[in-house]
User: Fold this.
Amino acid sequence: MDQAVSAETARQPRDDFWEGFRKGLPIMVASAPFGLLFGAVAIDNGFTVFEAVLMSATLYAGASQMVGLELFGQKIAPWLIVLSIFAVNFRHVLYSASVGRRIRHFTFWQKVVSFFLLVDPQYAETERRSEAGLPVSFAWYLGLATPVYVMWVSESFIGGMFGNLISNPHALGLDVLLPIYFLGLVMGFRSRPKWLPVVIASGLASVIAYQTIGSPWHVSIGAIAGVLVAAILAKPVNSEEN
Amino acid sequence: MSTIIWIIFVAAIMTFLTRVGGHLVLSRFERIHYRVEAGLNAVPAAVLTTLVAPPAFTNGWQEFATLLFSGLIATRFSMMPMFFAGAAFIILLRHFFPI
Assistant:
């Protein structure tokens, strides 16, 4: 369990940093189009370039930033936008509980920085490294996060500048790109247990709520429907009740 | 300060709380009730579906066709090709069938 502590003395932080950095490069490339898209759509939905960059730098949570844009474009009450962002990011609670055990040996401020940078691929790579028995040092963790974070923030700027140049966003389908992106994320979860009933419940409830009650509420009502279905259909992991 | 700046700051704090919260709160529990865990696991898919279904079913046939097409592509390909295929699809549909 204290593998990380013993290895830290033998390993150079600089080597660890670059090892992590190399792991971060493919993640950086894969997220690039969405960073640019975020910048461009932000401008289309009434953000300034500065606001787009600020959001990427302080939230650093791709899917939820897109959700924020989508809802802001629909003129939804600010507290509901924040709540929806919070709901989309709520999965981080699970990552945090898990990664917290891997980085016990970090100092307080190293932990603060690490949790701030805890995006989905960062979680996945940290778990993978830890499960492979390799030490998770702060230098490695920071190396992994650096290319992804720096590019994510830069792309919001580049995308924002580009978004200012788009004269006909409708022809480019900018309003449909976010639903396509969200659909891709939803499909990415399809190996999870009870995925289809959850998606059907959320989809149905959100469409009905959208048509009857109206715009902001379809998000919360649809999400609650899906979560309830998942909770109702859940089976205990082992025979004993807890 | 503009509304957007306020939204960004509050959302940034909330996002950070989700990222430390699991470590600070969830890890204190010996185990989580399986229904709570299943519910938590379903949150991202449930929330994101609500942002796909209404645009798919309450707009024109072009939007519905694009999301249907993208969903089918997603069963075979990863996010990136699926996203670009979907984007190309809506651009072509809107070009040849303008409203």
